[in-house]
Design goal:
- The chain is an all-alpha fold.
- Helices cover about 75% and strands about 0% of the residues.
- The chain is built from 14 helices and no strands.
Length: about 450
């Protein structure tokens, strides 16, 4: 397949038969040498004193010279094909790649690094701003401890869900006998109670109550106010639910609700049933769980978690930008090294094939010499047959030259040598040098992509 791809387009291609097969017996029959020799002999042609070849001898010599010209043409074409193929197997292109590619790759790596440096600077500015904001916040709030890592979503939600289910279960079981639809009816009517109780307390404590730990007095006032409102809310809601149970038996009616609301303000602690007190304390316990969950949802200090997360997110963003930039540098370097290895394999293949082509060209020249001897021998054989037939039919003596050897003079053909020019060492070391240059360029480009700490140190030093 490689030979077919690289062979030159000539009339005579390497590997085809360029030397005509010589069969003297067949030629003798085709030329009717016996008959023509006998005919010329009876006619005393040539004369005994003649020194010139006969027409038959000239025809034989001309025929073999045409064979020689044909062979010479084919040999030259085949030789030119070998020379062309040997030239096409030069490793110059691959050597140029091995020598010039590292500089191109180094320039590309440098361009990528400079481009990504802009993105890293932008990411670092964001990190620097978030870090400065966090430090200002910690200084203002006199915080020396690290931010409390929030519990997992599962833990935080589970605490709220446990409080909600506890209060809902107590309420449903308490009011189910007072509803005409039983548990289902009670569930639909009292489901709003834990939502108001737990949701209200959680929201008030999370938004306002946590400010009680802030350093500023105004913030502390807001926090105290928030906690007061939250616990007042829980007290009123749960006391109203307890009075609702006491009002009008266990009936879940609008009248019972109005009476319960009036009793909250007129007979606040006058509950007639121990179960009503249980209902009240369970509701308050659920509200307390909601308040605790509000404090542990994030760091207890309002704003600490958001500032910390802003810094963390900026840090992660910088790391992702840098990893992306390094991945681009790695991809360019790996592709370039792969291309260089392919170029080396092609160069080594070319170098290894050229001696074989030179050997074939030399063999072609030797075959041409052998073919010259073959033609001379065949021509002498045919002329000898003609002369012998001529002599047998003659009544006079043949010319003296009939006794001399036949000399077939053919033009000399010289085929120039095809240089193997293998030079197996011409690519030695080029690949390792190229890989070393690319590796150095890659490391140099990667060094310009500073880590976050390095960037921070440069900022401080500047």
């Amino acid at each position: 397949m490689v030979d077919r791809l690289f062979r030159a387009k000539h009339d005579y291609l390497p590997g085809t038969t360029i030397f005509r097969e010589i069969d003297v017996d067949t030629l003798a029959r085709e030329l009717t040498l016996e008959e023509r020799g006998e005919r010329d002999g009876k006619a005393e042609v040539p004369s005994s004193k003649s020194a010139r070849p006969t027409a038959v001898e000239n025809e034989i010599i001309g025929l073999f010279r045409s064979y020689w010209d044909e062979a010479a043409q084919g040999a030259r074409a085949a030789h030119e094909s070998y020379a062309t193929r040997a030239a096409s197997l030069s490793s110059a292109t691959e050597i140029d790649t091995l020598v010039g590619e590292p500089a191109t790759v180094a320039n590309k790596l440098d361009q990528i690094a400079r481009s990504e440096q802009d993105a890293l600077r932008s990411a670092f500015d964001r990190y620097h701003e978030a870090s400065a904001a966090l430090e200002r916040f910690k200084s203002a709030e006199r915080l020396e401890r690290p931010a409390v890592v929030p519990k997992t979503w599962g833990v935080r939600i589970a605490l709220l869900l446990a409080a909600f289910i506890l209060e809902l279960a107590i309420n449903v079981s308490t009011f189910a006998s007072g509803d005409e639809f039983g548990l289902a009816g009670a569930l639909l009517k009292v489901i709003a109670v834990p939502l108001l109780n737990i949701g209200g307390v959680f929201g008030l404590v999370f938004v306002l109550g946590r400010h009680v730990v802030r350093r500023e007095m105004s913030a502390k006032v807001v926090g105290v106010l928030g906690l007061t409102v939250a616990f007042a809310w829980a007290f009123i809601v749960n006391l109203a639910v307890a009075h609702w149970r006491d009002s009008l038996g266990l009936a879940l009616s609008a009248d019972a609700g109005r009476m319960a609301w009036e009793r909250v303000f007129n007979a606040t602690f006058e509950l007639n049933d121990i179960n009503s007190w249980v209902l009240f304390f369970v509701g308050c316990a659920a509200a307390l769980l909601a308040a605790i969950d509000a404090f542990i949802w994030h760091d207890p200090h309002p704003g600490y978690t958001s500032h910390t997360m802003a810094k963390h997110d900026a840090e992660q963003l910088y790391a992702r930008h840098r990893e992306f930039a390094l991945a681009q540098l790695d991809a360019v370097a790996e592709d370039a090294i792969g291309n260089l290895k392919d170029a080396l394999r092609r160069a080594e293949t070319n170098v290894s094939r050229r001696p074989e082509l030179a050997k074939r060209a030399d063999a072609l020249a030797e075959d041409l010499k052998i073919y010259e001897v073959t033609l001379s021998t065949a021509a002498e054989n045919l002329i000898t047959r003609y002369r012998e037939a001529n002599q047998r039919a003659r009544s006079t003596r043949p010319p003296a030259r009939f006794e001399a050897a036949v000399a077939l003079k053919l033009p000399k053909i010289t085929l120039p040598n095809v240089s193997a020019n293998a030079r197996p060492g011409e690519v030695d070391g080029l690949l390792s040098n190229a890989i070393h240059e690319i590796t150095v360029a890659h490391a140099r480009a990667a060094d310009t992509l500073a880590t976050l700490s390095e960037h921070h140190d440069d900022k401080v030093n500047a």
